[in-house]
Structure formats: C-alpha cells, structure tokens
Design a protein that fits this description.
Elements lengths: L2 E4 L5 E5 L2 E5 L21 E3 L5 H4 L2 H8 L2 E5 H9 L5 E4 L4 E4 L2 E7 L19 E7 L2 E5 L18 E5 L8 H11 L3 E5 L11 H8 L4 E2 L7 E3 L1
Parallel strand pairs: 3-4, 4-5, 5-6, 10-11, 11-12, 12-13
Antiparallel strand pairs: 1-2, 1-14, 2-3, 7-8, 8-9, 9-10
This protein binds zinc ion (ZN).
C-alpha cells in the first residue's frame, strides 16, 4: 500500500515503508498549495517531470535541506546539480531504476521542455511522466501531457493514475477520460486543474466522463488516499 497526498497542481507526496517521495514540488507561489515548502516532512527523493516553474518549484531548496535525491530527465537533473542539489540521479524516457524507496520508470509526455529558473540559461529537457512502484503499488504520474497513443503501452501495468485534466496546457476532460481508457488503472486522481483561472474545470464532470472505466478520487489539497 502507498499513501498518496495531493498538495495542489501536479504536486504529490507518496509514502510507503517509511520512505517519502515528492513529485513536482510547486509549493511556493502555488495559490492552491495547502503547505509551505518548509512544512514538508523529510524527503527521500524529489521527482521532476519537467523544468517549468510550476513543476520544478521548490525542488532545489528541498533537495539541499534533506540531501534528497533528485530524479529527473538528464538535462534537468544536471541543472539541479549545478544549482547545488547535492544528490541527483539523471534518467531518460524508457529507462527504469530501482532506488531504496522504490522503482521509477520514465515514460513519454508531450509538452514543452524549457527549464524555468534563475540561472537556467540554455537548459531544456524532454518532459516525462513517471511510473513509480512503492509499497507494491504502481503509480503513474502522467506529468503535463497531451493524450498520446503511447499511454496504451501502460495498460495493465498501472494501479493508480495521476492525471492532468485542466486543459489549455495539458489534456482536458475529454482527452483525460480517453487516457484513462488507454491506461486502465483501478484508481484515478485528477490533477493540474483549478490552480489558475485558465485551468479551472469541474472534476465531477471528469468523474462522469470516466464512468465505469475506473474509480475517480477527487482530492482537495492536503487530502490523501491509499491504494
Ligand atoms: Zn504544468
């Protein structure tokens, strides 16, 4: 079992077997975050899907605070190291690695690659999604992405899908529901919605669109589910 806590936008904390991992820690400046970065308990790892400011967020300060390992696409991991993250593990799409907290595999996401931070200079990267296996549960954080046929490769290999639904920058409800049909998880948690006016949407409409294909758990920032 893994405990999955949403902190608004694309930021989730995963906890299992005494290990704690955060994905896309955009807390400072996130109008829907329920915690400040300083309040996040000690982390084992920080996973980054891409370098946009609403995902890179507080990653480097948290990495420095806890000596947590930063797991990210190669170019973004190098940038974090240059910014002082003491412990980085570069990966890339298609690769998996077993860490003490669980296994991480990078999968395709279709999105922009710029790294947005002071000193980012020419850094760009290829955005990704993650399949993280912790506590025996396989969690697919889709990252920021369009609907893509590649998602069909994950069918039968995912228990929980963390799925963007906010439209404009990512899939909207119609495509997100099709993505659920492609991936066939047991449980879906919508994300990347409601943070800013341009991505306001109704997660209950998403629940209706998914229908019988999967259980949809609409979390509020700070709420958790276990799977
Ligand atoms: Zn985003």
């Amino acid at each position: 079992m893994v405990t999955i806590t949403w902190h608004g936008h694309a930021c989730f904390v995963l906890e299992a077997d005494g290990r704690r991992v955060i994905i896309d820690p955009f807390l400072t400046g996130n109008p829907r975050a329920d915690v400040e970065a300083a309040e996040v308990p000690t982390l084992d790892a920080i996973l980054l899907t891409h370098g946009h400011g609403d995902h890179l967020g507080d990653a480097v300060p948290l990495a420095k605070r806890d000596s947590a390992i930063v797991v990210a696409p190669y170019e973004l991991a190098r940038f974090c190291a240059e910014q002082g993250a003491p412990n980085v593990h570069p990966m890339h799409i298609g690769g998996a690695h077993a860490f003490p907290f669980g296994t991480v595999k990078l999968v395709t996401a279709i999105h922009g690659g710029a790294v947005e931070a002071d000193g980012a200079g020419p850094y760009t990267t290829h955005p990704c999604g993650f399949v993280v296996t912790m506590g025996g549960t396989r969690i697919y954080h889709a990252g920021d992405t369009a609907l893509t046929l590649d998602m069909q490769l994950l069918a039968g290999r995912v228990d929980v899908m963390l799925c963007p639904i906010g439209d404009n920058y990512t899939m909207g409800i119609e495509d997100a529901a099709r993505a659920v049909d492609f991936v066939k998880p047991r449980l879906v948690v919508p994300m990347h919605w409601g943070t800013f006016p341009v991505i306001e949407t109704d997660p209950e409409e998403f629940r209706r669109a998914v229908g019988e294909h999967a259980r949809v758990e609409v979390l509020r920032p700070g709420q958790s589910c276990r799977c």
